[in-house]
Amino acid sequence: MSSFWSIWITVLTLLVIVGCVFLLVVCNRNDTGIKEGESMGHSFDGIEEMNNPLPKWWNYMFYVTIVFGIIYLLLYPGLGNFKGLLGWTSANQSVTTIAESKAAFEKSEAAYGSEQGDGSFVQYDREVIQANERFGPIFDAFAKTPLEELVKNEDALKVGGRLYLQNCAQCHGSDARGGKGFPNLTDNAWLWGGELAEIKTTIMNGRNGMMMPKGGLPIEDGEINGLAEYVVSLSGRDHDAALAAKGQASFMKGCFACHGMDGSGNKMLGAPNLKDNAWLYGGSRMAIAESIQLGRSGVMPAWKDILGEEKVHVISAYVYSLSQKDESK
């Protein structure tokens, strides 16, 4: 916050407090010349106004709140850039990377105690420590359980489901069925493999999708429609056989290197299977042609430094269970 806005907020806040004190003092003064308890000479609808003071409990309440407000503003941040005598803050709001967040956490009083810390009181860090103390043993027990057994543990799957909703649903959806550019996790069409270990590796380390390279295919613009038609034919849909035959020649110019000779994909590269009718960016002829012409690139962020391996272990079991449930229907 700039110095101007810091001063502006501080002055306004203090003026409001001073104003409240002034109003209380004025309202408790009897400058009317009329004794307390006597009539003010006004009446309306049979109700006469009397010169009565404010109730003492009301006065005391206002004074207590004013004193409380002053103490609060001294202890906690609230007056512009003043950080408060306690050094309290809700979170390390200035950090921009995970590394900076960890460094700030290690310096805070919450991490090492008042003797070794820097004297700050970061509320979020305190809550993280309390959560780790409470739930850490649970995740440690889950982490020691092989994934093959964890997928049969209903309690672990419930925990994994909550972790998924907190961290994964933003991209893959609350029902895990994804959206355009975000894979459906329930259909068994896995770009990088759907085995338990492969899913965990994907979540832990992330993936940089080797998708369609923009302008990198050795084909002419006039070949795009034929190539799209051939891709449509691979998934068994109705197609123009003559146009698809021309497209097959275009496919063999370079597409097969990633998607395979038969179009079944390559999970080592994250190249999609073009035969399963599961389309990440849309399976219409127009969407396929757009992918060929403009390219596609997807990134799956790594979660090992954000959640830690113990939580990733549980989420992996949950994600695997989603596709198994879908397959059993």
UniProtKB/TrEMBL annotation:
Domain Cytochrome c, chain residue ranges per copy: 155-235, 242-323
Keywords carried by this UniProt record: Cell inner membrane, Cell membrane, Electron transport, Heme, Hydrogen ion transport, Ion transport, Iron, Membrane, Metal-binding, Oxidoreductase, Repeat, Respiratory chain, Transmembrane, Transmembrane helix, Transport
Main location per the UniProt record: membrane
Presence of the UniProt keyword Repeat in the record: yes
TM helices/strands, residue ranges: 6-26, 60-79
Cofactor note: Binds 2 heme C groups per subunit.
Places the protein is found: Cell inner membrane
Functional pathway: Energy metabolism; oxidative phosphorylation
Domain of life where this protein originates: Bacteria
Record Pfam families: Cytochrome_CBB3, FixP_N
InterPro entries (UniProt xref): CcoP_N, CcoP_N_sf, Cyt_c-like_dom, Cyt_c-like_dom_sf, Cyt_C_IC, Cyt_c_oxidase_cbb3_su3, Cytochrome_c_Oxidase_Subunit
Cofactor(s) required, per the database record: heme c
Xref: NCBIfam families: ccoP
Family the entry assigns: Belongs to the CcoP / FixP family.
Function: C-type cytochrome. Part of the cbb3-type cytochrome c oxidase complex.
Subunit structure of this chain's protein: Component of the cbb3-type cytochrome c oxidase.
Name of the featured protein: Cbb3-type cytochrome c oxidase subunit
Species: Shewanella corallii
